[in-house]
Amino acid sequence: ASRHADRRGPQQELVDTVPFGTFRRDLWERLEGYDEALAANQAYDFNYRTRRAGLAVVLDRGVVATYSARPTLRLLWRQYQRYGNWKAHMLRKDPRALTFRQIPPALLLPWLVVSLGGWIGAMVWQAPAPVALWSRVALVAYPSLVLGIGLHVGLTRRVLPLSAAAAITTVHVAWSTGVWRAAFGIRS
Predict the structure, then answer these.
(1) Plot region of 69 (φ>0 → left; ψ -120 to 50 → alpha; else → beta)
(2) pLDDT digit string, tens, across residues 17-40
(3) Contact 110/184 with Cβ under 8 angstroms?
(4) Which tops the pLDDT comparison, 167 or 134?
(5) Residues 6 or more apart from 4 whose CB is under 8 A from it?
(6) Whether the Cβ atoms of residue 75 and residue 174 lie closer than 8 Å to each other
(7) C-alpha angle 45-11-57 in degrees, rounded to nearest 5
């Protein structure tokens, strides 16, 4: 919701997390602030612990913050791979912190690897038609979705659709890569 705070909606909305949040000092002390063992995702972790304590995390559309995005896809990749890596560390601490909206990006890297492997395997070993068709459809599903979203973002936000698609792809694949690298103990 915080990424779309400019949309119409209630002045305040219950959400799972907010960036750049402010908290009452007594809450901060009660929950012991940010978990400094996490090099990233501290805000999400704190918001998660706030909700687990039975309290609300509220997005207030009246609060305005300016955020400067990373200037290159390489830096965006590094940022989101780091986020994915530390999300995996946070999930080791409490697996319930995984939300439904994070499952598709987490599964993206395995999906792409299996789809690409299936496509190559279908070509090399001349797989039956249904397997070959499945692998092609699976392989083009994500790029097609991202291009469609990139076109929508481009038309509604006055940015180049391919630039939007490149940024979306970078965010998703980097985050998924970070999650899986951490899951397999590979340092980022």
Answers:
(1) beta
(2) 888 888 899 999 999 999 999 999
(3) no
(4) 167
(5) none
(6) no
(7) 15
